[in-house]
Amino acid sequence: MKRKFKSLIATVMLSTVFGSAAVADKAALPELPAGFGKRPITIIVPYGAGGGSDQLTRAMVKALENVSDLHFQIVNKPGGGGTAAIPDFMISPADGHTILQHIDTAAAAFAKGDIRENPATDWNPLCITQITFSQIYIRPDDTRYTDWDSFVAYAKANPGKLSMGLLGKVGSLELVTMRQLSEALGLDLRQVTFDKPAETYGSLIGSQVDVLFEQPGDVRTFIDSKQMKPILTILNDRPKAFADVPTHREAGADFDPLLRFRGFFVKKDTAPDRVKYLDALCKAGFNEAGYQKFNESKYMNLIDSYRDSAGAKELIEKSITSYKEIYKKIGLVK
Description:
- By secondary structure, the protein is of the alpha/beta class.
- The protein has helices at 2-27, 52-67, 86-90, 105-112, 148-157, 173-185, 197-205, 220-224, 272-287, 289-297, 309-330, and strands spanning 41-45, 72-76, 98-103, 123-132, 134-138, 163-167, 190-194, 211-214, 229-234, 260-267.
- It folds into 2 domains: 35-130 and 260-330, Bordetella uptake gene, domain 1 (D-Maltodextrin-Binding Protein, domain 2); 134-242, D-Maltodextrin-Binding Protein, domain 2 (3-Layer(aba) Sandwich).
- The protein is built from 11 helices and 10 strands.
- Helix 2 links the parallel strand 1 (41-45) and strand 2.
- It starts with a helix and ends with a helix.
- Residues 1-24 have low confidence and may be disordered.
C-alpha cells in the first residue's frame, strides 16, 4: 500500500513538473497576434521526404506544437536543387501562415543569379536551427581503399574512374566544395548529382557510386549501422565525434569550408507582431527538450546551431558574399 502511495505521489510530482515546464514555455512567448493561428500553419520543405530538411522540419514542428497551441502541416516540394518550392512560397499571402524552410542553397542560388530573391532581405528570416559541416564517405567493405590517404592514392592511379554521389546542382555547396578540393589535391572524380536525398544516400549503399558527399547528421543511421564510413571532414578542426577522421586542411586543401545551415522564413511584408511572435516561437522550439535531443542525434550540437532573426540575416548575407567571391574565382559569375 505504501509503495502504491509513493508511486502515486511520484507520478503526480512528475506530471506537475512537466506540466509546469510546458506552461512556462508558452508563457515565455509574446501574446498571440490577433487573428493569427486560427488555421494550421503550412511549412514548405524544398526537398523530398526523409532528407535532412524534412527530418529537421518534422522535429521542429513537433517541438513548436509542444510549446504553443498552434498546429502545423508540412508540404514537401522537391525539385530544381531546392528552387522549385520558392514560387509556391512567393505567391502565398504575407500573413505568417506559410513558412518556407530552406537551406544555404538559397544564398548560393541568389549569389549565382538562379533566383531573384535575396533570402536575407527579400524574405524575412525567422531563425536558423541547424548549422553543420560536410564529410566524404565510403562503404566500409570496399577493399580498394580504407581511409582518405588510400582513397586519394587509388583515385590518382585511376583518374576519372571513381564516381561521387552528391545532392545539388551547379554552384551548390557540394559541387563548389568538391571543385575546391579536387583542384587543391589534383583529384579527378566523376560527379553524379541527385535531387532526392534517399536516392543520394542509396547511391553509395547500392554501389551506384564509389563515394558520397554529405553531412553527418543526414546519414547518421548509415554511419551507426556501419553502412557508411567517413574518411574526410570538411572543417578547419576535427570535431570530437570524428576525432579519427582527418580534415580537408590536414589533407592539404587550404580553403575556408562552406557550412550547411537550415532555417525558416516568412514573406517580407508579414506583419511585425507576427514576425516577432514566430521569432520567439522558433527559439522556444529550438530549446524544447525533444528538439535538442534530435539535434544531438544528428551531430548538430558540435557547432552552435541557433541564430535568431537578426543572426540569421547576418549569416545569410555573409554566405552570399562568400559564394559570390568563390563563383567569380571559378568563373561561374562575372
